[in-house]
Design a protein that fits this description.
Largest sheet: 6 strands, antiparallel
CATH superfamily: PPM-type phosphatase domain
Order of helices and strands: HEEEHHEEEEEHHEEHHHE
Helix content: 25-40%
Number of domains: 1
Number of strands: 11
Length: 265
């Protein structure tokens, strides 16, 4: 389909990295929670030269987190559809799309918090990626994660926006001191709880054979990096890795909602 549209002059040349890639996603409520406050995005149409994918892990009283993560992902999907699956030309155009989509979601959630005067404000993490040409641009808010497996070596591509890392980065504490602190995992950045949004962007060059995992902390907190690496290496297709990661997370704990999105290039 994408090749036909190219020869009809309807789109630019298809992205060769996406011609044979596999993409999969799944989410599970876990064994303890009553509601699934995770949400994911996984959009890859055969006529597009870009992929939108990522996870959002909501938080807040009652079903607030579920609403927040839904609004975050819905805003990005609406922007993607409105822009006709935008043909990204450069880094700034990709960042602009992510910035505007996430800012719209932040305004929606923040307005609800303010209007209803919610005591336990709803909010959500957002780890969102766009694959375009031979690049992956990631927008990071919170402590969901993106990993890359390349040539058998796994690498974390995002940083956790939590109290522990803030203290380490500022030099206020050593890594050992910050890790042992009771506030270590408290989020210092999330979407919807503050009027002004802080997004950490990063760009990465994609190589043939790369495998990427976007996940909520229901995966990363209960499966160590070595085991994540094993699950990404062991499978030929993204769907099998997603299935394994969700089920290993359930077997190890299942105390939190679990979400995994994989793309194998």
């Amino acid at each position: 389909m994408s090749i036909l549209r190219y020869f009809l002059g309807l789109k630019e040349k298809p992205n060769p990295l996406l011609e044979h890639c596999t993409i999969a996603a799944d989410t599970h409520v876990g064994r303890v929670r009553k509601h699934n406050e995770d949400a994911y995005i996984c959009i890859c149409n055969p006529w597009d030269n870009a992929v939108l994918l990522g996870v959002a892990d909501g938080m807040g009283g009652h079903e607030g987190g579920e609403i927040a993560s839904y609004l975050a992902t819905r805003s990005l999907i609406a922007s993607w559809n409105k822009n006709g699956h935008a043909q990204f030309k450069n880094k700034s155009s990709v960042r602009s799309f992510l910035d505007q989509g996430l800012a719209n979601a932040n305004q929606q959630i923040y307005a609800i918090n303010q209007k209803l005067n919610i005591r336990w404000k709803m909010g959500t993490t957002a780890t969102i990626g766009i694959v375009w040409r031979n690049k992956l641009t990631i927008a990071q808010i919170g402590d969901s994660r993106c990993y890359r497996m390349r040539n058998g070596t796994i690498r974390l591509l995002t940083s956790d926006h939590n109290w522990m890392n803030e203290m380490i980065d500022s030099g206020g504490m050593t890594a050992e001191e910050a890790e042992a602190h009771p506030l270590a995992q408290t989020l210092t950045n999330c979407l919807g709880t503050f009027e002004h949004l802080r997004i950490e962007f990063s760009e990465h060059t994609i190589a043939k054979g790369d495998r990427y995992l976007f996940c909520s902390d229901g995966v990363s907190s209960y499966i160590d990096t070595e085991l994540i690496s094993e699950q990404l290496n062991a499978c030929d297709a993204a769907a099998q890795s997603v299935y394994n990661l969700v089920n290993v997370s359930l077997a190890n704990s299942g105390a939190d909602n679990i979400t995994a999105v994989c793309i194998f290039v």
